[in-house]
Hints:
Mean pLDDT: 81
Strand content: under 5%
Shape: rod-shaped
Number of strands: 0
Order of helices and strands: HHHHH
Low-confidence stretches: 140-146
Helix content: over 70%
Number of helices: 5
Distance between the termini: 75 Å
Amino acid sequence: xxxxxxxxxxxxxEDKAELERRYREDGSRSQTEFVEHALRFxxxxxxxxxxxxxxxxxxxxxxxxxxxxxxxxMAKLLYKQAVEMDMGVxxxxxxxxxxxxxxxxxxxxxxxNVKRTNGQLRFEQAAKDAYYxxxxxxxxxxxxxx
Length: 146
C-alpha cells in the first residue's frame, strides 16, 4: 500500500453531512477512501479537458455492446434469408427457363411479397402458396389471398 500524506480541507456543514451519509454507497470503507475515489474521478474528467468528451467514453461501452448484439442478430437473419433465396433460385434454375416478361412480372410480385411480409419469407410458404394457386381454378381465385 502506498504511503499517504495527511491533507486537511474544508467543507460546508451540508457537504460534510452528505459525505458522512453517503460514503459507503460506492463501497468505500472510510470517508477518506470516498474522497480519494471522487478526486480520481474528477482528475480523470479534467484530463480529457472537455466535459462532452468524457461522457461518451463512459457511455460508449454500453452502446458498443448493444450495437454488437444488433449486428449479430442482423447477420443471422441475413444468413437465413440468403439460404432461403439460394434454395429457391437453385430449384427454379434447375427446373425452368423464363422469358424476360415473365421475369419482370416475377420481380414485381416478389417485391410485393417482401413488402407484405416485412421480409419474413420462407421457401416452404411460397411453395404452399404456389400449390394453392395451381389447385384453385382461375374463376374461383381469391384476389385477397395474395
